[in-house]
Request: fold
Amino acid sequence: MNMLVARAQLNVVEEMLAEFANPPQTTQLLALVQAQHVAIVTLLRAVVHVLEKVDADTPARKAWLLSAWKTWKTEPIFANFIELNRNQLLKEFRGGLGLKNPALTHTGVVANPDAPRDASLVVDFSPNNVRTEDGRLALPLFRDAVAFWDRPLREAEQAFKGLT
Reply:
């Protein structure tokens, strides 16, 4: 069996998280930092969707996944962070990296003729200070979320070997 597409997706999230956690020592375009944050949040929640829509490509795999999902979605890191954070950000537009987030300091403006107002905001970005909507440090939670998904994906990889 080839690598699960959901596993490839999680690998991308890990790479994105490494870049997010270790930004260059220069100011960052606010829009790019925000985009990284949104992408990580979104892709962490979408792992199970890819597993369901792409990798569970037989009735037996779909049935196995439906059963396993009942347990996975009750895990605290999923219910209290992955799902919650995605819903706040994408459904309510809360919890993103707005200018009031303690991870963003020393805001400036640079000319950018391609930007909507001919300028872009730049910030000093400290990933260790990124906070969730409820005030928790986000970086450890992102890492816990990646570690969480590794286990269900390993379970799926093992189960799917015997299911056609």
